[in-house]
Amino acid sequence: MTELFAQLGKSTRGSFSKLGRATFFLLQCLSGIGSVLLRPRLLLNQLHSVGVLSFLIISISGLFVGMVLGLQGFYILSEFGAEETLGVMVAASLVRELGPVVSALLFAGRAGSALTAEIGLMKATEQLSGMEMMAVDPIKRIISPRFLAGFISMPLLAALFSAIGIVGGQIIGSGLLGVDEGAYWSQMQTKLDFTDDIINGVIKSVVFGFITSWIALFEGYDAVPTSEGISRATTRTVVNSAFSILGLDFILTALMFGDD
Amino acid sequence: MANSDSHLNTLISVSNLSFSRGNKKIFDDISLDFERGKITAIMGPSGTGKTTLLKIIGGQLLPERGTVLVDGQNVHQLRRADLFTLRKRMGMLFQSGALLTDMNVFDNVAFPLREHTKLTESMIRTLVLMKLEAVGLRGACNLMANELSGGMARRVALARAIVLDPMMIMYDEPFTGQDPISMGVLVHLIKALNKTLGLTSIIVSHDVHETAAIADYIYIISEGKVVGQGTPDEIKQSDSEWVQQFMTGAADGPVHFHYPAKDYLDDLLSSGKRY
Amino acid sequence: MQHSSTQDTFVGLFVAAGIAALFFLALQVSNLSSFTDQDSYTLVARFENSGALKVKSPVSAAGVKIGQVSDISLDPKTYQSVVKMSIYSQYNHIPSDTTASVFTAGLLGEQYVSLEPGGSEDFLKDNEVLEITQSAIILEKAIGQFLFKSAEEKK
């Protein structure tokens, strides 16, 4: 029994000390952002590997999610004779929830895990240490540009996801199932509010981009520099990002859409 | 322990250093001096924290007690910016080379120049090609870091370490895992760089013969203590059994072949309890 | 450090596509365009009961959306609902004897203001009042009246 408590205490202390390290890491990372802006080349390279390389998976997923919403929405709405509001349903679910959340989950799986593995491997092969010995701060040179790139890419990717999804829903809805195309768009426009829906969705994706990039980079930086350590860190990135995204989504939704 | 007569000529001075990792004492109150323009070797069995010592000298790890003076500056009391300024004058060659894997050889060697100087691309090119020529790899400048053999990677890393013309260079196990030819090349390079550039060199190694061949002074460290020091000849003449075992590579001696264990016969006859 | 121009191009395309998607969401999907793009003028209608009408509910004539509700308030003296409507300025030929009614789109749909033009030659201008109005039909009231009537007839 005492052993159990000792174990519990040890692991609690461990997770607090990890949170402390993560916070310190975040502060260092944020303080390095200024120097990244002076060297846009570093940011550009990372926008490529974080953003551009996630583009394909995000667009394809967005298209299919939109088409599925179109199908499902049509079957449900047609029971109430409200097929005309299909556009509203597709767009609201994408812009408010699925766009930010699903694209953030995909982003954590695609870009987040890659970032963790990359940083972890750089640590294991002494590249970070080597940089420090060359009087180059690895946080400024390696971490901050990646963080900023993730932070910028996420809202763009989420917007692409939603936009492509809405078009996908329209292809199915009015192309295949015969919902009036004008009604699809005009109902959407009257029902979706710019600040309530679009801006809130963007805020969500900004928050998710921040948290996912933070987790991915920290897990890599904090990884045990062995192949097993890196593979564990990569798994933790995906799992922790998913939990954080879904948990934060609940909180943000309650804050944003709660008092209507 | 330190040679007090050569204080003026000392570039790096480690005094009363203690460091432990977990419960294990890595260094227990050791003092070492490194003379300007000389090759000093630190030898000892694997796992005695030789790499840790280099990281402490480079300011990447904080010692528990003791001071490290590099060119008169106390490494562990410098502000971050001053430490970075000092590090520009310290080269370090990591065991793995620590080349940046997303760049080719040329960009790797150019990296410190691009980070720390505002030289034009053509000047950088000249400097990089000069350093690569010095290590004999000018022809490899377009290869990616992962296309190099271990020995080549170390030579590229060496070119990178000297590209800012440092005052000193620390070699972490430069000979480990090299074939005889690459080993010969590295031995030759370290000696030549030391002579031509006047670099103060610290070699951490357990390759006795190669190191003894080029070192001016040798410290032997074991279990956190300096157990022997002197010129290579003095070390070879040492009457310490331990030093003799290490230098000749005998399997058994003061350092036992066997990891501490209970009695062999008892162990074999005991009822296969797992532990 | 590699200066690859294809990489730059892809990053450029990516950022441009992302920003285009944001604009698409703002202009094509949400109501941003409806209150920034179009000039409008205000008409006022007084209803005995405006039902579930809300700000931004559509205002239509002959099924075409011509504006939206911009404000709803209670007149403290007459206890009437004062509904202000922004009408897009291209629809500036609304006769002064036009009827404003609150209708429901479909059985479960939202409520909207329907304008039925009269025959007058005078057209309404900014901030003028629609005199003829027809209140929202409150379903409970209607059912209640219907039951009451049928009960009386049985007697």
- N-C termini distance of chain A: 50 Å
| Poorly predicted residue ranges of chain A | none
What Rg of chain B is obtained from the alpha carbons, in whole angstroms? 21 Å
Q: What Rg of chain A do the Cα atoms give?
A: 21 Å
From the helix content, strand content and strand pairing of chain A, which structural class follows? mainly alpha
| Average pLDDT, all residues of chain B | 83
Largest interface, counted with CB-CB under 8 A? A-C, 36 and 33 residues
Brief sketch in words of this structure:
Chain B has a domain at 5-89 and 166-269: Rossmann fold (3-Layer(aba) Sandwich). Helices cover 36% and strands 23% of the residues of chain B.
Question: What topology emerges from the helices and strands here?
Answer:
The complex is a heterotrimer of chains A (about 260), B (about 280) and C (about 160).
Chain A: H1 2-31, H2 33-37, H3 40-79, H4 86-124, H5 127-133, H6 138-176, H7 181-191, H8 194-221, H9 227-257
Helix pairs in contact in A: 1-6, 3-4, 3-6, 4-6, 4-7, 4-8, 4-9, 6-8, 8-9
Chain B: E1 10-21, E2 24-35, E3 39-43, H1 50-57, E4 65-70, E5 73-74, H2 80-87, E6 90-93, H3 105-116, H4 121-134, H5 150-161, E7 168-172, H6 180-197, E8 200-205, H7 208-214, E9 217-222, E10 225-230, H8 232-237, H9 241-248, H10 264-269
Parallel strand pairs in B: 3-8, 3-9, 6-7, 7-8
Antiparallel strand pairs in B: 1-2, 1-4, 4-5, 9-10
Helix pairs in contact in B: 3-4, 3-5, 4-5, 6-7
Chain C: H1 5-29, H2 32-36, E1 40-47, E2 58-61, E3 64-74, E4 81-88, E5 99-104, E6 111-116, E7 128-130, E8 132-134, H3 139-154
Parallel strand pairs in C: 1-7, 2-6, 5-8
Antiparallel strand pairs in C: 1-4, 2-3, 3-4, 5-6
Pfam family, one (chain C): MlaD
InterPro entries (chain C): ABC_MlaD, Mce/MlaD, MlaD_Phospholipid_Transporter
GO molecular function (chain C): phospholipid binding; phospholipid transporter activity
